[in-house]
Design brief:
2 domains; cell membrane; membrane; mainly alpha; 99 residues; transmembrane helix; Manganese efflux pump; 73% helix; transmembrane; 3 helices; single chain
Length: 99
């Protein structure tokens, strides 16, 4: 059994990683808070839809992540990090240089 499943890997979610995740979540919530009122949709239905989609996709991602982690180990973590960095660079490029 891996260290994460034994609870010994929880220290990896402290310090800088936890701080960075909280900043990313805050920026995402800020963007949604600015964008949602411009859509003229009912707030309760919009929040319910976001909650359901988030729950379903999170469950799928957890299952996929566990399987990928079991097969690929550290390489899966590195690939995921690289993909997130590339996604961030793409978003910055689209909203600054390509605008």
């Amino acid at each position: 059994m891996s260290d994460e499943r034994n609870g010994e890997g929880s220290a990896r979610l402290s310090g800088f990683a936890l701080w960075a995740a909280s900043i990313a979540t805050s920026v995402d919530a800020f963007a949604a808070g600015i964008t949602l009122p411009t859509l003229d949709l009912p707030p309760l239905a919009t929040c319910a839809t976001i909650a359901v989609v988030t729950a379903v996709l999170s469950a799928i991602a957890i299952e996929f992540g566990q399987r990928a982690g079991d097969r690929c180990g550290r390489h899966a973590e590195i690939a995921g990090g690289v993909m997130l960095i590339l996604l961030g660079v793409n978003i910055v490029f689209d909203h600054t240089i390509a605008a």
